[in-house]
Design brief:
- The protein has 265 residues and is an alpha/beta fold.
- The chain has a single domain, classed as 3-Layer(aba) Sandwich (Rossmann fold).
- The protein contains 13 helices and six strands.
- Helix 5 packs across helix 7.
- The radius of gyration is 17 Å and the shape is globular.
- Bound molecules: adenosine-5'-diphosphate and magnesium ion.
- The site of adenosine-5'-diphosphate has 16 residues, from helix 1 and helix 11.
């Protein structure tokens, strides 16, 4: 079982889109069993997969923090996408924002999620991959996610703000893990929304390759800026199923393969 989280400190770079679509590419291998976990109170991943996140009665990631004893089978929604029945999800909920406030005074608050997965590891080991989406902050809920996972994948689009977001994330997380006593788990940097007509496009890659913290983790294939990628959200299906012949689908599969080669996936 590998655990992975998508993150950075800029919104709109394509964390959720990359998470959803790369999980789709992984799920083409029927030997893989994937659990998506939506860690963003905006619930974009939950919506992308086709669930309504304002449903207050359904268990969600928040339940893990509220009820440590909850049986993991009660959290999971199975096979929403008929085309990819090997993807399950723990959805998010708009009230996750409240969890953030409730956790601030609890001892060992950054490790609650890791403890839950450890206690239930027999159950979770049925999955080959547990993949978290996050929002752009380093609040307590996200700290729990980034502390738990084996690998963090940074997502950058082609903009100076995205470079700043990746650098800030790296700087702050490195400070954090010193305090938490764990190894640096930032293992990959994916460029999304790539359009070579943007002046910055080539310089962006060169810049990342010139920086010590990024040069060894940059994924060579970028995910192109494409309407087909946008459509995955509306159609509740990853591009590898929605438009398998599209060039963006080939790029997503290549990125997934690079992540497999690097043992992130
Ligand atoms: N490769 C892409 N091509 C075109 N549009 C994209 C691509 N990746 C993301 N988008 C669009 O950009 C917006 C932000 O993407 P999203 O994945 O929600 O970012 P984040 O999760 O980092 O905030 C969404 O409207 C999404 O559909
Ligand atoms: Mg998002």
């Amino acid at each position: 079982m590998k655990s992975i989280a998508f993150g950075t400190l800029k919104g709109g770079t394509g964390k959720t889109t990359s998470c959803f679509n790369l999980a789709g590419a992984l799920a083409l291998n029927p030997n893989n069993r994937i659990l998506l976990v939506d860690g963003d109170p905006q619930c974009n991943l939950t919506n992308d997969i086709g669930l309504d996140c304002s449903d207050m009665d359904r268990n969600n990631i928040r339940t893990i923090f509220e009820n440590k004893k909850i049986d993991p089978s009660e959290l999971i929604i199975h096979g929403i996408m008929n085309e990819l029945p090997n993807i399950d999800i723990i959805p998010s909920n708009i009230l996750l924002i409240k969890t953030e406030m409730q956790l601030v005074s609890i001892a060992g608050r950054e490790k609650l999620l890791a403890n839950y997965f450890e206690r239930n590891k027999d159950f979770f080991s049925q999955y080959t991959h547990i993949i978290f989406d996050t929002n752009p902050n380093l609040g307590v809920v996200n700290q729990n996610i980034f502390y738990f996972v084996n690998s963090i994948i940074l997502v950058s689009d082609v903009s100076l703000n995205a470079i700043q977001g990746a650098e800030l994330f790296t700087f702050l997380w490195e400070e954090n893990i010193e305090d938490l006593g764990v190894e640096n788990n930032i293992k990959a940097l994916v460029i999304n929304n790539y359009d070579k007509r943007i002046n910055l496009a080539k310089d962006l890659k060169d810049y990342y390759l010139s920086e010590d913290e990024f040069k060894d983790i940059l994924i060579d294939t970028p995910i192109p800026d494409s309407v087909a990628m946008k459509d995955t959200s509306i159609n509740h299906l990853p591009i590898v199923v929605l438009q398998p012949g599209h060039k963006a689908a080939s790029a997503v599969k290549r990125v997934a393969n690079e992540l497999i080669e690097r043992e992130v996936f």
